Amino acid sequence: MIKLKTQVIINPASAQGRTRRRWREIKEALKTFIREFQYEFTEKPLQAIELTRQAIKSGSELIIGVGGDGTLNEIANGFFEENKIINPRTELAIVPSGSGCDFMRSLNLPVSLKQALQIIAKAIARPVDVGRVTYINKEGKKEQRFFLNVADFGVGGEVVHEVNRKRLERKASSYFWTLLTTMIHYRQKKIRLKIEDQELPENEYLIGAVANGRIFGKGMKIAPLAEVDDGLFDLVLIKGMKFFEFLRNSWKIFTGAHLRHPKTTLWKARRLEAHPAQEEKVVLELDGEEVGRLPATFEIIPSQLLIKAKLEVRP
């Protein structure tokens, strides 16, 4: 039985509204494992950030997020204020209840409610890395935000834009199908990159994935070798492809085999910069949410958040 002061933050709209309908079941299951807890529902985008900050400042020792990757991203951002972690001893736990839950897979979290709660009750919280990115937001201003899973620029950002637009219109939105339809009209973007101190020649990139976790896009193993606690990003760069070339190779991204494709390169890095080579919009998404555009600077912050998960213990 957990005795920590606990705050539960629920995104009722996650999993296409199923979380709202399941809340009574989730609440009763939580009571089995946690002595006492407070809970609040989010009612608008980014509200989970402020709810988390308020809870930590009020002495919460454990924050439990109920939702998907977007909800988890907001809660993780709420652990910080003015670019500093509010309380490094506060723990984060997750009840997966979203459309994708990709980062949860990198943490080896089960989707079963009972099994997820058993991990919350029994697992020792371990430190994981956090990504920090400075970018241009939708209003054209420089902004900074944290992410746990994957930041992605190129076609991925435009796919996320379309997926979220369809979600707002209550239309079915398969990430992979939207990727294929977006590819038909997508124009490759030329990007300049600086990885650590090495500047790469300007090139056309279809995908630039700055990965802390292994999986994005509802199951695609974009960075199968990534570790959430190694102090490094896995930067996966896929150079420009025509539509039918991409179509022939698209299955590989579900298995991780794309890393062997000659147009794919993998870098390990603590810091990188990405700039559009020309004055064109290159969309940036973080953990499945479109936030703005390049130019952007990405930095890894090692061992920053304590998360209850089933991480492998490495020597």
Give descriptors for this structure.
single chain; 315 residues; alpha+beta; Rossmann fold; Tumour Suppressor Smad4; six-stranded antiparallel barrel; two-stranded antiparallel sheet; 8 helices
Written overview of the protein:
The protein has 315 residues and is of the alpha+beta class. The protein has a 6-stranded antiparallel barrel with strand order 9-11-10-14-16-15. A two-stranded antiparallel ribbon has the order 4-5. The chain starts with 5 loop residues before the first strand and ends in an 8-residue tail after the last strand. It has helices at 18-33, 47-57, 69-78, 102-106, 113-122, 155-168, 175-185, 243-249, and strands at residues 6-10, 38-41, 62-67, 80-81, 84-85, 91-96, 126-137, 142-147, 150-154, 189-195, 198-211, 233-239, 264-269, 271-276, 283-286, 289-307. The relative contact order is 0.17. The model has no long low-confidence stretch (mean pLDDT 91). β7 (126-137) and β8 form a beta hairpin. The protein has 2 domains: 6-123, Probable inorganic polyphosphate/atp-NAD kinase, domain 1 (Rossmann fold, 3-Layer(aba) Sandwich), CATH 3.40.50.10330; 131-302, Tumour Suppressor Smad4 (Sandwich). The protein has 8 helices and 16 strands.
